């Protein structure tokens, strides 16, 4: 098995719970994302997703809908790649 795969089901469940947002639009995107990618997430993906989930609902929605792009310390290759995955579900 790929060592970078996030195999801890409890950690993935906590992440999925944390992804529940106040805005329905965000919830729908995350539900589709987890349905498609949950079993494939690596530790780097989980870390990037955790960083995105630290944003406010409105900031996150702007990123998900490509109204804005990640800036500063959020603009890491892992966050940008994960954001593309979220935008494409």
TrEMBL record:
Source superkingdom: Bacteria
Signal peptide bounds: none
Record's keyword annotation contains ATP-binding: no
An annotated GO BP: succinate metabolic process
Cellular localisation: Cytoplasm
This protein's record includes keyword Cell inner membrane: no
InterPro entries on file: SDH (IPR005631), SDH_sf (IPR036714), SdhE_FAD_assembly_factor (IPR050531)
Pfam families, alphabetized: Sdh5
UniProt keywords, alphabetically: Chaperone, Cytoplasm
Gene Ontology cellular-component annotations: cytoplasm
Family per similarity comment: Belongs to the SdhE FAD assembly factor family.
Protein name in the entry: FAD assembly factor SdhE
Native source species: Candidatus Burkholderia verschuerenii
